[in-house]
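Predicting holo structure, MRU bound.
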Amino acid sequence: MLQTITWTGEAARLLDQTRLPTETVYVDITNEKQMWDAIRRLVVRGAPAIGVAAAFGLYLGIKNERPSELFAFYSKLNEVADYLATSRPTAVNLFWALDRMRRVAREAGRGTSNLEPRDAIDMIKNRLLHECLEMIEEDTRVCRAIGEHGLALLKQITNPKSKMGNPMEVLTHCNAGGLATVQYGTALAPIYVGAERGMRFHVWSDETRPLVQGSRITAYELQANNIPVTVICDSMAATVMKQGGIDVAIVGADRVAANGDVANKIGTLSVAILAKHFKIPFFVAAPTSSIDLSLATGDQIPIEERNPDEISRGLGAQTAPDDVDIYNPAFDVTPAELVTAIITEKGVVRPPYVKNLAKAVRGEPKKKEPAKPKKKRARSKVKR
Ligand code: MRU
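Done. Tokens:
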């Protein structure tokens, strides 16, 4: 699997996703300004990966600070965290990761009154680096668990064609694969876990205008992992669904509100509406760190608006007249009623979301998805 984020000992090494699919180039980030820019320009992107990157950005921002007082260290830490929090507004994992780092720093500082302030500061810094490295491990574990739960869910889908040896047909939008996380991804994790076990999939990857993460990144990573993939323009999903080509749609999330409304890459809402029309299950795969219980509904999720050039010049050529008015929201909100289920690392969450998402976030154990009832096997007529 490709590595989205690694720690070199000096720098956070990011796979530069702006250069995909033609160049596989890594960049070493050594300070918070470079990390802010990398997040803003989508060098690193996808909600979980943004969270881990921001945590490293915070560590890099305080790594060389050696003030003589603890309070000066904390005020620098807060300053860097506040700054990184302005890089992108929608993926809640960014704020989740920065808050987690602030909390770890506070906790590490408790009980250091017997130390010289500079020694206490060194200790807190070590603890923060350790937390970043733990986030890398944790994200991998979490995505793997999403893969397991998601696969169990996919196995419940009736797919008469797959019984004849055909692959399961999955539509996805944007990139919620390994490159949007540390490894495995969220929406693509069930596919990777299933493929490891011999299950066959074919993925329809929406191109995902305007920054074409579906064709640049999802197609690239699925090819690299030997999963058959076909790229379609966003406007073609309805036709492929109508032709009976899709068994299930799975997407990721940048933020899930308490009522189950889901913010994800612009165009996700259209996929959900189409899926409902064609009676195709529409699943969202997301870690519980993407669930924001502080927001009652998706209307409260801040939606990033990006540079109009991404639409008029994003594909290299000019595709709109000069000075034309352009609207470029990077995300949309899919209402909960269009979401069949939300796959988290704690299990599959189904409606009513207000109750069940809160339970998932609090970590209450979830009942296992009921296994699909086995059909009684017809008695063999062959005598043994
Ligand atoms: O603008 P991007 O590329 O960061 O948007 C990414 C998405 O919308 C993903 O679907 C989402 O972050 C989930 S990633 C597991």
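The two ends are 47 Å apart (CA to CA).
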